């Protein structure tokens, strides 16, 4: 099984994802928010690239979520904090989300056979689904301003660690995959504290979002794995596995 | 002291290097070759981007070195194997080099206050010079096909490790810096074997360049640090330190 890690949304190329399972990671905070909203009972979430498109697609009864420059968008129901996506807000509703890097990565992954999302909150479950699907994998870190972030890297490293435990075939990694896997192993024992040194964790903490940081660094709180089905992110169900 | 690591030559921006010490790393094999050639007695090396420019600048008595697609260029004295740069070939001579990523990174670093080159062969000496110069630092990994390589990443991680030991001020890292430092610490005890898993080490070995791989992974064989002075790479001498 081949696994390639891509550093940021801007670097994603069609050849990275075609005939593969793609996994988008944006720990702070898009993919942490998506898994939370679905776990709280949202029916589905549609990721879109622009604010006008989100407003255009939003119908009566849907919730709108997302951010620009880390701030909630005027007229939206929630920003990019997973803690805003409560059962009260999302249960039984469909939603639309737009964020700077995370939704861009999801859209650029469009040609993959499957598109999943991972965060620390569901990383182990995601590895199990990827091993079950048994295709080559593209791990797509969303990044920030076209560059790799520490939190996405170490989540990718942890995902590789779990895939190696679940996969039947031997795993071959690209160089970034080898590096993030080593980095994960290098700080596995003190992961949460190391991640608090990341530039985004520091920035979010400074802006008063410390609870978000703590929440997003929680490992394996959910067994739910979001998967894209016809432009909607829904919870993966093994029995729904497509025939490729 | 601020240290930012950049993943590949194509990602280098002027704002990464301005008012800083820049360090270019291309372990396989440009910066390993440059330090070797200077250590074997070459007077200076001029890095140029194109083969025609190398031929145009080459004067009687100079040696020409470099590669395209990992092969020696027709009419050149040597390719990109450091072991070709023997005392017999280079001592007392000026040289010109052109390689795919390494020389491109050197040229893109042009606006930095200082431009050094590092490889495992001289990484500790390079850290000491950087601490002595005491400017913020841009570590520029040359990469391959616009993406990070494992060998450049771990050399950058080792460089950071040594700088932290030598620097008077506390060191602040960007996220890629944090990741490569952790990756280095994660495999410090078994570095050579881990690096043999890198895609470029495997490719070079397959092509019969195993000796090059072994040589380039040798740590701290030299105390020489190449520095760019008016388009020429020469050995750094502390007394030549410029006043900025």
From TrEMBL, chains A, B:
InterPro entries: ComB-like, ComB-like_sf. Gene3D superfamilies: ComB-like (3.90.1560.10). It catalyses: (2R)-O-phospho-3-sulfolactate + H2O = (2R)-3-sulfolactate + phosphate. Its cofactor is Mg(2+). The keyword Cytoplasm does not apply. It holds the Pfam family 2-ph_phosp. It comes from the Bacteria. SUPFAM superfamilies: ComB-like. Coiled coil: none annotated. Belongs to the ComB family. This is Probable 2-phosphosulfolactate phosphatase. It comes from Paenibacillus polygoni. The lineage of its organism: Bacteria, Bacillati, Bacillota, Bacilli, Bacillales.
């Amino acid at each position: 099984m081949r696994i390639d890690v891509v550093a940021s949304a801007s670097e994603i190329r069609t050849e990275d994802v075609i005939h593969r399972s793609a996994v988008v990671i944006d720990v702070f905070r898009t993919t942490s928010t998506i898994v939370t909203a679905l776990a709280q009972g949202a029916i589905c979430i549609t990721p879109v690239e622009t604010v006008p498109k989100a407003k255009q697609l939003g119908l009566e009864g849907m919730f709108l979520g997302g951010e620009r420059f880390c701030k909630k968008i005027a007229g939206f129901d929630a920003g990019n904090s997973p803690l805003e996506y409560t059962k009260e807000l999302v249960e039984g509703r469909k939603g639309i989300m737009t964020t700077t890097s995370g939704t861009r990565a999801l859209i650029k992954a469009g040609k993959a056979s499957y598109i999943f999302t991972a965060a620390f909150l569901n990383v182990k479950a995601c590895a199990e689904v990827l091993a079950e699907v048994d295709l080559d994998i593209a791990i797509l870190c969303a990044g920030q301003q076209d560059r790799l972030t520490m939190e996405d890297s170490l989540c990718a490293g942890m995902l590789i660690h779990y895939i190696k435990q679940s996969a039947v075939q031997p795993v071959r990694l690209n160089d970034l995959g080898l590096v993030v896997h080593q980095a994960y192993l290098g700080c596995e024992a003190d992961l949460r504290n190391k991640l608090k040194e990341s530039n985004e964790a520091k920035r979010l903490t400074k802006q008063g979002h410390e609870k978000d940081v703590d929440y997003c660094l929680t490992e394996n709180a959910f067994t739910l794995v979001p998967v894209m089905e016809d432009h909607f992110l829904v919870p993966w169900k093994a029995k729904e596995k497509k025939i490729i």
